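User: Quick sanity check before I run a bigger batch. Here is a single chain. Can you write out its predicted 3D structure?
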Amino acid sequence: MQYNYLSASEIRDKAKEMLKGNYGKAIGITVSQLLFHYFANFFSFEVEDGIQNLLAGPGGSLPVTKDLIVSLGGYLLFLLFLVLADISMAGIALFYLKTATGRGGQLADFYYGYQNDTGRFFTISCVLLLPQFVASLPFFFLYRWYLNAPGSVSLPAVIAAAVLATLIQPLVSLFLGIAFYLAMDFSHLSAGEVLRETWQKMSGHRLRFLRLMIGFLPLLLLSLLSFGVGFLWVVPYYRMSVAVFYLDLMKPKTVTSTWERTA
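Assistant: Done. Predicted structure follows.
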C-alpha cells in the first residue's frame, strides 16, 4: 500500500501548530536537559582538575603524556555523565509524542527514563553517543597536543578534526534519530531490537529526514547570534518536528504503545 508522507516543510508547519499553547512546557523540558548536560560537564571538569592538582601540586603542571592521560580520563568521565544525562531523551520523546497526539505532555515526563526501563534507555544512549565519542578522539588528542606542545600540531588539523566530530551526530541521526521515539512506542522491544528496527524504519526516509534537519540550519545560526537564547525556541521546534516525522513514518500503527494505553 502506498502512502503520501509529509514533506519537510509540512512537518515543520504541523510541528509549529502543535506547539501552540505548549511552548512553556517544551522550554522547561529543554532547560532541564541543558542543566543535566551542564552538570555533566561541570562534575567531570572538577574531577579532572582535582586529579591534576593532586598529581602536579597547586599551580604545577604535568608532563605532556601524564596530562594527556588525566585529560582523557576526564573526557571519558564526561561521556559517562553525558550518557546518564541523555537517558532523559526517553522522557523528552514521551513529552513530544503525547503533545503531538493531543494527550498533554507534562514536565514530569522528562524523568520517565530514570523511572522506567532505565537499563534499556541507558544502552540506547550509549550506542547513540558511541560514534560521537570515536569521532571526537582525533580532535581531543590533537587539541591537547596543540595546547601542550606548540608546533607539534597545526591549527588546520585541529579545526579539521573538530569539523569531523561535529558532523558525526547529524549522520547518526539519519540512521538512528528516532530511536527513543520508537522505544517509547514499542516497550516490548529490547534496546538492540529498538536500534535494529529504527535502522530499518529509516531506510528510504533518510533523505527526507536530512531535508528536515537542513531546514533548521538558518534557525540554528540565528540562535548562535542571539548568544544561545534562540535555542530555547529552536530546540522544541526541532524536537516536535522529529516527533511529527516519526508519527508520519509509522502510519498506520500496528501496535498500541504503552504510553498511549496509559494516557
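Residues 14 and 177 are 19 Å apart (CA to CA).

User: Great, the batch can go ahead then.
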